[in-house]
Design brief:
Length: 220
Amino acid sequence: MEERTNVSFSPGLRAAAQVFSYLLHPLFIPLLITLIAVTALPEYFVSFKQISLRFPYDALFIRVIVTCLLFPLLVVVLARLLKFVDSIQLSGQRDRIIPYVGTIIFYFWAFYTFKRQGLSPGFYNAFFLGIFISVVVSFVANSFVKISMHTVGWGGVLGFLMALMWGMGMNVSLPLAVAFVLAGFAATARLVLNAHSPGEVYAGFIVGILSQLIAYAIVG
């Protein structure tokens, strides 16, 4: 296994890296993609706007927040309270097993229900299938290497935007450029914190991008 770097960074830089690690956490990505999708492509989400409770698309946002953010967080918190994991930061490979299993279930449920309901566009369903695939691959690989879930998540954003560009001919140059910058911040933050080796960071990008492209080829 590739060794992590032992470079010593200043406390201020490490603090900034910690902040970016939280702000760019992969659990926020499904909500981010949903926000971007309904803002940039509202014509594909008319059905969700019609079933809004109080604000436009609020039912959709609540659904994504509960399934893809609150439930996975609840699994981590419960696992910590029951002492199944040593830290909520999931620093070790063993600590990641239970959260991986929970996240796999929740992401598959999100994909299955969106697909079965038939209200969401194909590219949106493909996104959830893609994050499900990426977490499954990361879970299997966890026995051998601690892939960076930050770069898996941001690789998924890049792959999703690439799928829209190549598969639907959309001009996503600006969001793709912004995503590249944010992905770079996320990767750098994980390296500064010595949370991963460069190889684990690059592996995350590869898994995230390929998972989204494969998912789009299946259901996009």
